[in-house]
Design a protein that fits this description.
five-stranded mixed β-sheet; six-stranded mixed β-sheet; elongated; single chain; alpha/beta
Length: about 900
C-alpha cells in the first residue's frame, strides 16, 4: 500500500481526536473525505506475485480518499484530487463547497506527499528548478530554486453553526475560496499572473471582503526566479492597491521553513496560518537577505515578513490569505479568519478525583500514550485542568483493547500513575489490563451493610447530578420521617442514628439511586439491574418500574414497620457454606433459624431468633466454618416477617408498578419482570419475607451472557458472592463488582473506571496454575482469599488468609493511619489470621524485597509487583495488596 494512504489514515484519526471526536462514533455518517495526492513512483517496479492482488488499490490515487472512508465507515463523498502542488488547497475548496451544499455534515480535507523514488528530483534538476543548498528562498533576491519536502496534513471542516451546536472547538473560519486555471499561457508549467489575480479577487468576492480586510498572505513562494516574481506582482496588483502604506499586506511562505511539500503544501500553509491566528503572531519567512529585485515593490503596499510581528486586530477579526499554484496550471486561493470568541461558560466546580483513561492497540503503544499524556499534564499545556483532560480522554478518543485508568485527585497522583504505566510498573492509583467483550453489564444494588458515616458528604458537594437526585429523595421522604436525609448522608447527626433500620435503609436507597444517576449522566447504561433484598427497591426505581415517590414510600414505611415490630427479636449472619450444607447444619434449630439468603455457591445468610442464632454461630465456628454476624437485631427473610404482613399490606396498598424500562431480574421470582403491576405492594412483602436468591440469579445472568457486574452502592459488599468461582465462569476470575480504592467521594468515578475496562486477571493476583487469589478491599480493610491448588472446580474451596486493618507498622514512612496508603506483599497460608501470627496486616513491611510473614512464621523475601512474584507452594499463594486510605 502506498505509504501516502497509511499517513492519511493516521492523520485523519489524529484530526478527529484533536477535535474531541471519537473516530469510531462517525461510522455510517455522511462525513466527506477530500484528499490531495500525487503519485511519486511507489510500487512502480516489479510487483511480487503474492502482492499483485493488492497493487491495484494499494497504489491508486483514487483509493487514497476512499480507503479513509472505508476504514472509518464514512458515507459522504470521497474525492481524490491531483492538481500537483495545489492539490490539497483544491481539496479544501471542494470540501467547503460540499459542506455548504449539504452533501456532507463534516469533511476531512488535506493532502499527503511521500517521494518513494528520486524522480521528482531528477525532473526539476533538469529544469534547473532546485536550489543548490536545498533551501526555498521565497521572494528573496537570492532565490535559486526550491527544496523538495514530504509531509501530510489533514484538517476537519464543519459548518460553523453545526460546530457551535456540537460544542466543537473552532480554530479558524474558512471565509472564502476560489479555484481557476492558467489556460493557454506562456507555457504549460509556467505560472500566469492574470490568472492568479483573478483567483484572488474571486476568493475575496466569495468571502465578501475587500483586499484591505486581509492582513497577511501565505504565498506559494517556491523560491524560483520565475514563479516568485509573477506571484508577488499578482499580490501587488490585488492586495497591494488602495491600501494604507502603514498597514501593508505582509507576505511569507512556509516553504522557507520546511521546503516544498507539493501535494501537501497547501494544507501545510493553512495549518501554519491557523496557528498564527490562534497565537496572534505573524511568523517570519526565512532566508531573505533582500527582497527580489525582479519585483517592483513600490507598486503596492506589500512587504516581506522577515521577522516575527505581533498581529493586532485593528477593530476587526484577523484574516489571512493562502495561495497555492500547481504545475498543472490549477490555482487556488483561500481566505481564513480567526475563530469567533467561544461562548463564556461557568467554571466547573472541583470534582475531586477523576479517571484518566488511556487505551491503545498494544501494550507498547499504551506505555507510549501514557508517557505523552504525562508530558502533557506536566507541561500544563493550555492550562487544562485534570477534569478537562479526563473529560477529553473519555469522550473524545477511540477505545482500544489495551486499557488503563489512572484515578487521580491531584497532578502529582496523575503523573505518578501515568509514569508507572509508561514504565510498565504498578501504582496504587493505576489499573490496567486487556479489554474484550466480557458480556452485558448488570448494575447490582446491595441490601443493608454498605452504609458508613458521611458516605454522601463529598459527592453532595462535588457532583451536581448526585446532589439533585438526593435532593429529590429528600423532598419525597420528608413527610414520612422526622430526620434529615441530607444531614444523615453528610454525617452531621449522631452516628447512632445511622444504626436504626428506619434510617439506614432510606439513606442507603438514596445513595444508590444517586450514584445510578451519576453513572447515567456519564453515559453508562446497564443492560439489566439486580437487587439484593432491600436493594431491589433501588433497582426497581432505576429500572423505571417504580416511581421515585413509590420507591421512597416502600423503603421508608417498610423499614419503619421493621423497626417497630421486629427489631430486638432476632439477628442475621453470613456463613461460608453452600445452601445445602447450611440447611443440614441448621436442622437442630429448625423453626428457629433459617437460610435467609443464598449469595453464592459457598455463601449464605442465616437468620432467626437471637439466642438460637448465637448457638448456631458458636457451633459452626467451632467446626472451622467462617461466620460473620450482620449488625442488625432483626431477622429479615424469616417467619418473623409474617408479623408485619397486615401492616405492610395497608401501608403499601397504593403502590403502582409499571413495566420496567431497563430489564429487571427478580431474586424473588427467579425470573425477569416484564409486565406492569408485578412490583406492587404485595411484591415488597414477598421480597422481605422470602429467601433472597441472589446467587442463583447471578448464575442465571451469567448463563445469559451478562458478564460485568457493577455494584452501585456506598461501599462494595457483594464482591465475593458475585464471583461464583471457576465452575460457573470458565473464562477465569473476571466476575466481580468494582472495588472502592479511594476516598468516599470517588466511588462513582472509580466505578466509571471499571465500566471503561471490566475486571480482568490483572486485578486479581494469580499465582501458579489454577490458583486464583482474590483480594478485596475498601479503605484500610483488606481480605485476601485463595483457592486450594488441589481443589479442582469445587466452588467452596476458597480460603480466607487475611482480614483486618493495615496497621501503622505496615505503612511506608511518613504515612499515618487513617490518612495514607500502603502496599503489603505476602505469602499466605492458614485461615483467619495473617501468616506469622499477626492479626490483620500488622508487622507486614511494604518494601521491595523486604521480609514478609510466611506460613511458618519465618521471614522470606518476596519481590513487589503483580508480575514478579513466583508461585507459592502447593496450597498457598502470594498476593500484592494495594490498600486504600480513607474508608473509616
Amino acid at each position: 500500500m502506498d505509504p501516502q494512504q497509511r499517513l492519511l489514515l493516521e492523520t485523519s484519526w489524529e484530526a478527529l481526536e484533536a477535535a474531541g471526536i471519537d473516530p469510531g462514533s462517525l461510522k455510517g455518517t455522511d462525513v466527506g473525505v477530500f484528499t490531495g495526492v500525487a503519485s511519486q513512483g511507489y510500487g512502480t517496479g516489479v510487483v511480487a506475485p503474492e502482492v499483485e492482488g493488492f497493487a491495484g488499490t494499494g497504489l491508486a490515487g483514487s483509493v487514497a480518499s476512499g480507503r479513509v472512508s472505508y476504514v472509518f465507515g464514512f458515507e459522504g463523498p470521497a474525492v481524490s484530487v491531483d492538481t500537483a502542488c495545489s492539490s490539497s488547497l483544491v481539496a479544501m475548496h471542494l470540501a467547503a463547497q460540499a459542506l455548504r451544499q449539504g452533501e456532507c455534515s463534516m469533511a476531512l480535507a488535506g493532502g499527503a506527499m511521500v517521494m518513494a523514488t528520486p524522480g521528482a528530483f531528477m525532473a526539476f534538476s533538469r529544469q534547473r528548478g532546485l536550489a543548490d543548498d536545498g533551501r526555498c528562498k521565497a521572494f528573496a533576491d537570492g532565490a535559486d530554486g526550491m527544496g523538495l519536502a514530504e509531509g501530510v496534513g489533514v484538517v476537519l471542516l464543519e459548518r460553523l453553526s453545526a460546530a457551535r451546536e456540537h460544542g466543537h472547538q473552532v480554530l479558524a473560519v474558512l471565509r472564502g475560496s476560489a479555484v481557476n486555471q492558467d489556460g493557454a499561457s506562456n507555457g504549460l508549467t509556467a505560472p500566469n499572473g492574470p490568472s492568479q489575480q483573478r483567483v484572488i479577487r474571486k476568493a475575496l468576492d466569495t468571502a465578501r471582503l475587500t483586499p484591505a480586510d486581509v492582513d497577511v498572505v501565505e504565498g506559494h513562494g517556491t523560491g524560483t526566479a520565475l514563479g516568485d516574481p509573477i506571484e508577488a506582482q499578482a499580490l501587488l496588483a490585488t492586495y497591494g492597491q488602495d491600501r494604507d502604506p502603514q498597514q501593508p499586506l505582509w507576505l511569507g511562505s512556509l516553504k522557507s521553513n520546511i521546503g516544498h511539500a507539493q501535494a501537501a503544501a497547501g494544507v501545510a500553509s493553512v495549518i501554519k496560518m491557523v496557528q498564527a491566528l490562534r497565537h496572534g503572531v505573524m511568523p517570519p519567512t526565512l532566508h531573505v537577505r533582500e527582497p527580489s529585485n525582479q519585483v517592483d515593490w513600490s507598486e503596492g503596499a506589500v512587504e516581506l515578513l522577515t521577522e516575527a510581528r505581533d498581529w493586532p486586530r485593528n477593530g476587526r477579526p484577523r484574516r489571512a490569505g493562502v495561495s497555492s499554484f500547481g504545475v498543472s496550471g490549477t490555482n487556488a486561493h483561500l481566505i481564513l479568519e480567526e475563530a469567533p470568541e467561544a461562548p463564556v461558560t461557568e467554571e466547573a466546580a472541583s470534582v475531586g478525583a477523576v479517571p484518566l483513561v488511556v487505551s491503545a492497540r498494544s501494550q507498547g503503544s499504551l506505555a507510549g500514550q501514557a508517557g505523552r499524556l504525562a508530558s502533557y499534564v506536566e507541561s500544563d499545556a493550555g492550562g487544562a485542568s485534570l477534569a478537562d483532560i479526563a473529560g477529553a480522554l473519555v469522550s473524545g478518543r477511540g477505545v482500544f483493547g489495551e486499557r488503563a485508568v489512572v484515578v487521580a485527585g491531584s497532578e502529582d497522583e496523575a503523573l505518578a500513575g501515568l509514569r508507572a504505566l509508561a514504565r510498565g510498573e504498578s501504582d496504587l492509583n493505576l489499573v490496567s489490563g486487556s479489554g474484550g467483550v466480557p458480556g452485558k453489564v448488570v448494575w447490582v444494588f446491595p441490601g443493608q451493610g454498605s452504609q458508613w458515616v458521611g458516605m454522601g458528604r463529598e459527592l453532595l458537594d462535588t457532583s451536581p447530578v448526585f446532589a439533585e437526585r438526593v435532593g429529590e429523595c429528600a423532598a419525597t421522604l420528608e413527610p414520612l420521617v422526622d430526620w434529615s436525609l441530607v444531614d444523615v448522608l453528610r454525617g452531621e447527626v449522631e452516628p447512632a442514628l445511622l444504626e436504626r433500620v428506619d434510617v439506614v435503609q432510606p439513606a442507603s436507597f438514596a445513595v444508590m439511586v444517586g450514584l445510578a444517576a451519576v453513572w447515567a449522566s456519564a453515559g453508562v447504561i446497564p443492560d439489566a439491574v439486580l437487587g439484593h433484598s432491600q436493594g431491589e427497591i433501588a433497582a426497581a426505581c432505576v429500572a423505571g418500574a417504580l416511581s421515585l415517590e413509590d420507591a421512597v414510600r416502600v423503603v421508608a414505611l417498610r423499614s419503619q414497620a421493621i423497626a417497630a415490630r421486629l427489631a430486638g427479636r432476632g439477628g442475621m449472619a453470613s456463613v461460608a457454606l453452600s445452601e445445602e450444607e447450611a440447611a443440614g447444619r441448621l436442622e437442630p434449630w429448625a423453626e428457629r433459624v433459617e437460610v435467609a439468603a443464598v449469595n453464592g455457591p459457598s455463601s449464605v445468610v442465616v437468620a432467626g431468633d437471637a439466642q438460637a442464632l448465637d448457638e448456631v454461630l458458636e457451633a459452626l465456628s467451632s467446626d472451622g466454618v467462617r461466620t460473620r454476624r450482620v449488625a442488625v437485631d432483626y431477622a429479615s427473610h424469616t417467619r418473623h416477617v409474617e408479623d408485619i404482613r397486615d401492616t405492610l399490606a395497608e401501608a403499601l396498598a397504593g403502590v403502582s408498578a409499571k413495566a420496567p424500562v431497563v430489564p429487571f431480574y427478580s431474586t424473588v421470582t427467579g425470573s425477569w419482570v416484564e409486565d406492569a403491576g408485578v412490583l406492587d405492594g404485595r411484591y415488597w412483602y414477598r421480597n422481605l419475607r422470602g429467601q433472597v436468591r441472589f446467587g442463583p440469579a447471578v448464575a442465571d445472568l451469567l448463563s445469559q451472557g451478562h458478564g460485568v457486574f457493577v455494584e452501585v452502592s456506598a461501599h462494595p459488599v457483594l464482591v465475593q458472592p458475585t464471583w461464583t468461582g471457576p465452575r460457573s465462569c470458565p473464562r477465569g476470575p473476571r466476575r466481580g463488582a468494582w472495588r472502592c480504592r479511594r476516598t468516599p467521594s470517588t466511588i462513582s468515578t472509580t466505578g466509571s473506571s471499571r465500566a471503561h475496562k471490566p475486571p480482568t486477571r490483572r486485578h486479581w493476583a494469580l499465582r501458579g496454575p489454577n490458583t486464583p487469589c482474590w483480594v478485596r478491599w475498601c479503605g484500610c480493610r483488606v481480605e485476601v482469599y485463595s483457592q486450594r491448588e488441589d481443589a479442582g472446580d469445587e466452588a467452596d474451596a476458597w480460603t480466607r488468609h487475611a482480614t483486618g486493618l493495615l496497621s501503622a507498622a505496615a505503612r511506608p514512612d511518613g504515612v499515618r493511619a487513617g490518612t495514607g496508603s500502603g502496599r503489603a506483599v505476602g505469602r499466605g497460608g492458614g485461615r483467619g489470621r495473617w501468616p506469622g501470627g499477626h492479626d490483620g496486616l500488622a508487622g507486614v513491611p511494604a518494601g521491595v524485597g523486604g521480609p514478609v510473614g510466611s506460613g511458618d512464621g519465618r521471614p522470606s523475601a518476596v519481590p513487589r509487583g503483580l508480575d514478579g512474584a513466583a508461585p507459592g507452594p502447593r496450597g498457598g499463594f502470594r498476593a500484592v495488596v494495594d490498600v486504600g486510605d480513607r474508608r473509616r
